[in-house]
Specification:
By secondary structure, the protein is of the alpha/beta class. The chain is built from five helices and seven strands. The protein has two domains: about 110 residues, Chitobiase, domain 2; about 35 residues, no CATH class. It comes from Deinococcus proteolyticus (strain ATCC 35074 / DSM 20540 / JCM 6276 / NBRC 101906 / NCIMB 13154 / VKM Ac-1939 / CCM 2703 / MRP). InterPro entries: Dockerin_dom_sf (IPR036439), EF_Hand_1_Ca_BS (IPR018247), EF_hand_dom (IPR002048).
Length: about 170
């Protein structure tokens, strides 16, 4: 939907009980800001955890030396797995707000709320009602061939791979 191949891989840990988000924040300030942002979205039923062993780098400032437009808080640089999310240290937003903006864009959250995170990261339960059922299949099928809701493997495409994951999660009543 927004940019083809995603900046970070979403790994759902087994079921909708937890979601591991891969991202490599560079430095303790960014790591704390990311952890704080994920804590804001986490719920007891769906904790969001930062995994720093992969995904794009999250940097404060330009790692390429290219100056920022002063009005830009966050930008994405690179291709595929080599992508970076760069936060403008002199930008219009505070660090915590810029990190939330970057994560919302990266993980395609409709809003910065635990409800939006639960809907986005709850696995094959696409409507977030606590059950993987035909309503979820209808949501997946309505996005087949595109992107968005129904992208169960985090590759920003709703395709046969997502149908296979859905089939594995679906239980006949």
């Amino acid at each position: 939907m927004r940019r083809g191949l995603g900046l970070a891989a979403l790994l759902l840990a087994g079921s909708a009980s937890a979601a591991d988000l891969t991202l490599r924040p560079q430095g303790p300030d960014l790591t704390r800001a990311v952890q704080q942002a994920l804590a804001e979205l986490s719920t007891p039923g769906l904790p969001l955890r930062l995994v720093t062993t992969g995904g794009p780098a999250l940097t404060l400032g330009s790692s390429s030396g290219v100056p920022f437009n002063p009005d830009v808080a966050v930008r994405t640089v690179g291709q595929g797995a080599q992508r970076r999310i760069e936060i403008n240290p002199q930008g219009p937003l505070t660090l915590n707000v810029a990190v939330r903006q970057a994560l919302a864009q990266e993980f395609e959250l409709d809003a910065w709320t635990p409800e939006a995170a639960r809907l986005r990261f709850s696995g094959a339960d696409l409507n977030g009602d606590g059950a993987v059922d035909l309503t979820d299949l209808a949501l997946l099928m309505s996005n087949l061939g595109g992107s968005g809701r129904g992208d169960l493997n985090g590759d920003r495409q709703v395709d046969d791979a997502d149908l296979k994951l859905f089939a594995e999660a679906y239980q006949l009543p």
